[in-house]
Amino acid sequence: MSTVPEDVTKLTENTYKNVMEQFNPGLRNLVNLGKSYEKAVSAMTLAGKSYFDAVSKIGELAAVSPVSRELGEVLIEISDSHKKLNLELEDNFKHFHKEIIAELEHKIELDMKYMNATLKKYQTTHRDKLDMLEKSNSELKKLRRKSQGKNATKYEKLESEYVETISSRQLDMQQFVADGCREALLEEKRRFCFLVDKHCTLTSSIFGYHSKAQELLGKKLPNWQDKCTDATKVPDTILTMIEGMKSSSTPQPSPHPGRYSMSTEPPNPPPAPALKAHPSPLVDMFNHTEQPKVSSTTEKKASTGPRDDSSLPRSVSVATGLNMVKRPRVITIFPHTAGSNNTLLSFQDGEIIILLTPEEKDGWLYGEHEKTKRRGWFPSSYCRPFTEQAEDNRSSAPVRSVSTANLVNQQSNSMILPPPDYEESSPPVRSTEVSAVPPPPAYSGAEQNGIVKPPFLGGGNPFATVKLRPTVTNDRSAPIL
User: Fold this and answer.
1) pLDDT of residue 193
2) CATH of domain 5-227
3) 264: CB partners within 8 A, 6+ apart
4) Is 322 helix (H, G, I), strand (E, B) or coil?
5) The pLDDT of residue 66
6) Taking Cα atoms as reference points, which of 386, 383, 299 lies closest to residue 349?
7) Among residues 199, 225, 351, 471, which one has the fewest Cβ atoms lying within 10 Å of its Cβ?
């Protein structure tokens, strides 16, 4: 099939125009879309990193659970795997930007200038050759008109030269048109080949990314799926711990608090000392001097009710305003030294002890030192009940205290107190409240623990036992007036 040179020339020009008017603008649009693609992938990887960081944190929470530890480790592994794949994807798109977007953007500007210059050159050359061919044809026509006259042989040689020149220029024209068309089509193909080659490189890079993803996830995915197939499965260590809890002895319940006391005995208090504790000779003096006044309302209630205090627990205060939640406490009035016996409790006077036993045993009480937190036995006569001033102020009812050791019942062991110095100024004592005090028992010079204290250290009158003798004076002098 023969092709008309004009059709070939038209194809050539259309090819150049197609590259300049469609291909290059398409590349420009492709570059812009590629930049948007990069931003989207960058935002995706950034959001994916934040997402899988959150997954990892949740996995860390599950990793500390005795039941869900393995699931937490799986979540952490999944997070790490996806973050690695995101890093690989970021690297791939760095190559995408460098090898495709940046290079295409650079080539578009150069190619627009190159294709425009190439098309103009082709059109100029084609026009020149065509003009020369047309000029040769017109010259040949003029020469043939002249040869039809008388001297025909004179123009035969010249006519043959023009015919040869025209044939040569036609061949040259055809060759130029063919070469121009071929060059235009190749220019177009080179550009498409370049674009295909770059995207083949991108595809190969993405294929490598997906191959790494398959290799990384394909090995771990079955193990991850096995960990979550049965949500009711409990690890063997937890089952052993639960079975151990079932087989262990049931703890003893706390005893129900009594009517007057919320405290309970310690689980295993040490045995009380074998010797009976000696009462302090001054303990009743302290209790007598600090006995609170009782209102008439309380006296009326007490007169109507039972008078037997021995039925109350000996380690509890029966004050109306007492906080029943707290354990009873006592304040020491004499120092006590345990010595080498580790079951006894050492203390100084004025310290607080929390009682741990409801009743005394042979004159001993068991308690805990409030400051040192040490526990031990101590004589009940070395202390008195302790009531806080704030609790006394908050209590609207009158207070009637009973000693932890029930010191009221120990009046037989009390000493006789001397009368105060100004007896007429002291308030009268109700006969119903104070009974006759028997003579005190004999005590050795050295008290228990080897410590002796005079009565005035407890707050009494140091001159209460001093007897004044009458004085006689023979001084008959008088002032000089």
Assistant:
1) 94
2) 1.20.1270.60
3) 254, 255, 257
4) coil
5) 78
6) 383
7) 471
